């Protein structure tokens, strides 16, 4: 090994040694500067590389975002995803390269500078110090006088010691110099070699990565060539279409706006229309026309509009079959037309007369198409379902099972007279008046709506959902029964029923029939000739029976499952004490013949309704209402009981529903403070309890004994009624706590009540009926 400074020369401390030291020291100082500069440049390179990786990663994320945005284009999405994955791998390789650079250049060279060069500097300082001490000792030894023996010896001793120390430190210094000169080569070369190997690995990994990506890029390039050709072809086609459209006559473009009933997207017609405000002022906003100009469309048998495409459509007309469309020439604005439904009207304005005509024709065609589609659906249902004829009896289980699963339309049309409109005779009516129990055509149903719900409540047999008890009510009455009441004097008066299509005649006829009741025979009920004779016979006994009944005292009774009540004293069978005072002690057969068929001149309509409610005679109840009976009439002779309470005692769910639909107060109570819900709970009539709760009965009301329906049901251990009452109470409390006043309740509550309604109407034997004797009233 070649030494930078010779050890022999070190001992001599010759000028060659000093010159060699000076040269080495200058070289080491310059080496330190170079290494410091290289380390700083390496740190800057690493920091810049990390910033590059961060920027590269952001760029790669941008590519991925673009790939996700292009999810509808499989080629672009796949390519960008693959490229972003490859770039991510390259970022990982770059990160590894910079980590290795930091370890090989920065760490190793910094350690060499801090450790080895520091040792060299320390050795240099000691050498310079001892050199100075040696020079001082030599000078002092030379200056001592010969005759001063003591000083001579002292100077000689100091010089000897200083020389020994100098030789030792000089040799260490030379050793440090030679070691440093030897080590610096290995340290520099080792760090640089590691750095280069890191680059070799980086480029090798990148080459392998892109070698795998190469075939895909080649295929993509060929596909791109085809895409360029296709894009050029599409551009030419679009330019040609642009030129063709540009040459069209836009002055008559609105005339080509046509509707398409069979459009694939279900939209018959769409476009902008001005809409008049629906508030009380009925104004057009002139300052801000965008507030009233909306994008209208006819779709799914509805007229809807939107302000923005993302907005949910606002429904103007729920069912186009229920509306009419007409021109509006009596206002100052041009091109206006009006869409009128049973509940509201909407004034619209088109941009031209041709557009107005197109919209009107589109609405009219949509109405006709909707009727045709509904008719086709009904025909399909008729083919699938087995036909059934004859009237429906609510107590006939075999017929219930036969008709189970059929639509409301089919069940109701099985009733005599219901296959044609009750008022005009048009075939296949699809609407019904639920409080009258009749079927109607769509035109007559619109007139019935205009009468008000206190005269007629209209519902669709095909569009609306029907509760089971309401469907049974429709099957108990029918057009023939009601017309025998409301058209009793029609032939005598020489009045003819209006024909289909005579709108004005229909309106006058229907108002005279149901509002004015001109055709009701107030002196003749629904009686056959033989029944008329029975009425004359029963009339002679009326006064005697009334006086006897009013003088009698009500005897507490108990009821059994059959509805016949037992006297608590002697156990003999009798009718309930709350039955009419006129028939309290009559035999069963005679009472049914005499109490109902009393002369209409002498029988109060309210009392007639009261008795018929207990006897479950819906035709007679309808007749009483036609004669002007108050549905909430209270019998002062029998604890102020109402027809609805009598219907509860009679045990008929359908009778209760009929009274409620005709305005009966579900919370009207007798003198004992008991309303219909109390009585139904006492008797264990689960179906009636369910019905009253659905119709808003107050279950918190207490009777004169301070008992509410729930406490009565708990004492009687009637699990079904307790369940219904508690569920209703929980639902009421939940709605009050959440501020949902007027809402029906959650889905679970509605499902349970729906199940009870189905059982009470279709399978009453499944209900847990009240088996014990009722408490006395």
UniProtKB/TrEMBL annotation:
<keyword id="KW-0863">Zinc-finger</keyword>
<dbReference type="InterPro" id="IPR011993">
    <property type="entry name" value="PH-like_dom_sf"/>
</dbReference>
<feature type="compositionally biased region" description="Polar residues">
    <location>
        <begin position="386"/>
        <end position="395"/>
    </location>
</feature>
<dbReference type="GO" id="GO:0010008">
    <property type="term" value="C:endosome membrane"/>
</dbReference>
<feature type="repeat" description="ANK">
    <location>
        <begin position="639"/>
        <end position="671"/>
    </location>
</feature>
<feature type="coiled-coil region">
    <location>
        <begin position="117"/>
        <end position="147"/>
    </location>
</feature>
<dbReference type="GO" id="GO:0005886">
    <property type="term" value="C:plasma membrane"/>
</dbReference>
<keyword id="KW-0343">GTPase activation</keyword>
<feature type="region of interest" description="Disordered">
    <location>
        <begin position="374"/>
        <end position="398"/>
    </location>
</feature>
<dbReference type="InterPro" id="IPR037278">
    <property type="entry name" value="ARFGAP/RecO"/>
</dbReference>
<keyword id="KW-0175">Coiled coil</keyword>
<feature type="region of interest" description="Disordered">
    <location>
        <begin position="549"/>
        <end position="579"/>
    </location>
</feature>
<dbReference type="InterPro" id="IPR004148">
    <property type="entry name" value="BAR_dom"/>
</dbReference>
<feature type="coiled-coil region">
    <location>
        <begin position="217"/>
        <end position="248"/>
    </location>
</feature>
<dbReference type="GO" id="GO:0008270">
    <property type="term" value="F:zinc ion binding"/>
</dbReference>
<dbReference type="Pfam" id="PF16746">
    <property type="entry name" value="BAR_3"/>
</dbReference>
<dbReference type="InterPro" id="IPR001164">
    <property type="entry name" value="ArfGAP_dom"/>
</dbReference>
<keyword id="KW-0862">Zinc</keyword>
<feature type="domain" description="Arf-GAP">
    <location>
        <begin position="406"/>
        <end position="527"/>
    </location>
</feature>
<dbReference type="Pfam" id="PF01412">
    <property type="entry name" value="ArfGap"/>
</dbReference>
<dbReference type="GO" id="GO:0005096">
    <property type="term" value="F:GTPase activator activity"/>
</dbReference>
<dbReference type="InterPro" id="IPR036770">
    <property type="entry name" value="Ankyrin_rpt-contain_sf"/>
</dbReference>
<dbReference type="Pfam" id="PF12796">
    <property type="entry name" value="Ank_2"/>
</dbReference>
<keyword id="KW-0479">Metal-binding</keyword>
<keyword id="KW-0040">ANK repeat</keyword>
<dbReference type="InterPro" id="IPR001849">
    <property type="entry name" value="PH_domain"/>
</dbReference>
<feature type="compositionally biased region" description="Basic and acidic residues">
    <location>
        <begin position="374"/>
        <end position="385"/>
    </location>
</feature>
<dbReference type="InterPro" id="IPR045258">
    <property type="entry name" value="ACAP1/2/3-like"/>
</dbReference>
<keyword id="KW-1003">Cell membrane</keyword>
<feature type="domain" description="PH">
    <location>
        <begin position="266"/>
        <end position="368"/>
    </location>
</feature>
<comment type="function">
    <text>GTPase-activating protein for the ADP ribosylation factor family.</text>
</comment>
<dbReference type="InterPro" id="IPR027267">
    <property type="entry name" value="AH/BAR_dom_sf"/>
</dbReference>
<dbReference type="Pfam" id="PF00169">
    <property type="entry name" value="PH"/>
</dbReference>
<feature type="compositionally biased region" description="Polar residues">
    <location>
        <begin position="557"/>
        <end position="568"/>
    </location>
</feature>
<keyword id="KW-0472">Membrane</keyword>
<comment type="function">
    <text>GTPase-activating protein (GAP) for ADP ribosylation factor 6 (ARF6). Doesn't show GAP activity for RAB35.</text>
</comment>
<dbReference type="InterPro" id="IPR038508">
    <property type="entry name" value="ArfGAP_dom_sf"/>
</dbReference>
<dbReference type="InterPro" id="IPR002110">
    <property type="entry name" value="Ankyrin_rpt"/>
</dbReference>
<feature type="repeat" description="ANK">
    <location>
        <begin position="672"/>
        <end position="704"/>
    </location>
</feature>
<comment type="subunit">
    <text>Interacts with RAB35 (GTP-bound form); the interaction is direct and probably recruits ACAP2 to membranes. Interacts with MICALL1; the interaction is indirect through RAB35.</text>
</comment>
<protein>
    <recommendedName>
        <fullName>Arf-GAP with coiled-coil, ANK repeat and PH domain-containing protein</fullName>
    </recommendedName>
</protein>
<keyword id="KW-0967">Endosome</keyword>
């Amino acid at each position: 090994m070649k030494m930078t400074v010779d050890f022999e020369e070190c001992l001599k401390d010759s000028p060659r040694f000093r010159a060699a030291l000076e040269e080495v020291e200058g070289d080491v100082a310059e080496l330190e500067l170079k290494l410091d500069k290289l380390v700083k440049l390496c740190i800057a390179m690493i920091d810049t590389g990390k910033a590059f990786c961060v920027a590269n990663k952001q760029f790669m994320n941008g590519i991925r975002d673009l790939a996700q945005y292009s999810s509808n284009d499989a080629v672009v999405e796949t390519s960008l995803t693959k490229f972003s994955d490859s770039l991510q791998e390259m970022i990982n390789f770059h990160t590894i390269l910079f980590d290795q650079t930091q370890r090989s250049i920065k760490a190793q060279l910094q350690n060499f500078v801090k450790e080895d060069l520091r040792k060299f500097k320390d050795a240099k300082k000691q050498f310079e110090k001892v050199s100075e001490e040696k020079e001082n000792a030599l000078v002092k030894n030379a200056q001592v006088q010969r005759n001063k023996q003591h000083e001579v010896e002292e100077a000689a001793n100091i010089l000897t010691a200083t020389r020994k120390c100098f030789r030792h430190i000089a040799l260490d210094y030379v050793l440090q110099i030679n070691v440093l000169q030897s080590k610096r080569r290995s340290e520099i070369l080792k760090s640089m070699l590691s750095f280069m190997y890191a680059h070799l690995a980086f480029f090798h990994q990148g080459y392998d990565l892109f070698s795998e990506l190469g075939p895909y890029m080649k295929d993509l390039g060929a596909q791109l060539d085809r895409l360029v050709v296709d894009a050029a072809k599409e551009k030419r086609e679009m330019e040609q279409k642009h030129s063709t459209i540009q040459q069209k006559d836009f002055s008559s473009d609105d005339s080509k706006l046509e509707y398409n009933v069979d459009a694939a997207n279900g939209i018959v017609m769409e476009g902008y229309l001005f809409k008049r405000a629906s508030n009380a002022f009925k104004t057009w906003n002139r300052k801000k026309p965008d507030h009233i100009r909306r994008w209208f469309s006819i779709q799914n048998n509805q007229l809807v509009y939107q302000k923005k495409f993302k907005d949910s459509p606002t429904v103007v007309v729920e069912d186009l079959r229920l509306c009419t469309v007409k021109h509006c020439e009596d206002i100052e604005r041009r091109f206006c037309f009006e869409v009128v439904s049973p509940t509201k009207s909407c004034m619209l304005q088109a941009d031209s007369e041709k557009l107005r005509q197109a919209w009107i024709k589109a609405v009219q065609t949509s109405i006709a198409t909707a009727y045709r589609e509904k008719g086709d659906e009904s025909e399909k249902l008729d083919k699938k379902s087995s036909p059934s004829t004859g009237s429906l009896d609510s107590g006939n289980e075999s017929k219930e099972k036969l008709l189970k699963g059929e639509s409301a339309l089919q069940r109701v049309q099985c009733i005599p007279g219901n296959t044609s409109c009750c008022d005009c005779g048009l075939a296949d009516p699809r609407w019904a008046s639920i409080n009258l129990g009749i079927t109607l055509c769509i035109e007559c149903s619109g007139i019935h709506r205009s009468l008000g719900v206190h005269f007629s409540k209209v519902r669709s047999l095909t569009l609306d959902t029907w509760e089971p008890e309401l469907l049974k009510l429709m099957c108990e009455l029918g057009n023939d029964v009601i017309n025998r009441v409301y058209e009793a004097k029609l032939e005598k008066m020489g009045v003819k029923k209006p024909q289909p299509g005579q709108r004005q005649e229909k309106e006058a006829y229907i108002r005279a029939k149901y509002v004015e009741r001109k055709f009701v025979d107030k002196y003749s009920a629904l009686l056959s000739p033989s029944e008329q004779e029975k009425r004359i016979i029963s009339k002679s006994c009326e006064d005697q029976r009334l006086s006897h009944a009013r003088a009698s005292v009500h005897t507490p009774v108990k009821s059994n499952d059959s509805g016949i009540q037992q006297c608590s004293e002697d156990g003999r069978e009798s009718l309930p004490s709350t039955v009419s005072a006129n028939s309290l002690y009559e035999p069963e057969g005679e009472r049914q013949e005499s109490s109902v068929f009393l002369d209409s001149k002498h029988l109060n309509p309210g009392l007639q309704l009261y008795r018929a409610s207990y006897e479950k005679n819906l035709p007679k109840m309808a007749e009483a209402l036609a004669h002007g009976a108050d549905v909430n009439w209270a019998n002062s002779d029998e604890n102020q009981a109402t027809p609805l309470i009598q219907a509860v005692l009679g045990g008929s769910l359908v009778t209760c529903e009929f009274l409620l639909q005709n305005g009966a107060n579900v919370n009207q109570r007798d003198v004992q403070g008991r309303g219909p819900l109390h009585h139904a709970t006492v008797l264990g009539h689960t179906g009636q309890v369910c019905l009253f709760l659905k119709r808003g009965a107050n279950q918190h009301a207490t009777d004169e004994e301070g008992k509410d329906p729930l406490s009565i049901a708990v004492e009687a251990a009637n699990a079904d009624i307790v369940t219904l009452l508690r569920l209703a109470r929980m639902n009421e409390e939940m709605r009050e706590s959440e501020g949902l006043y007027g809402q029906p309740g959650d889905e679970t509550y509605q499902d349970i009540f729906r199940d009870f309604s189905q059982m009470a109407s279709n399978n009453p034997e499944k209900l847990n009926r009240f088996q014990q004797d009722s408490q006395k009233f």
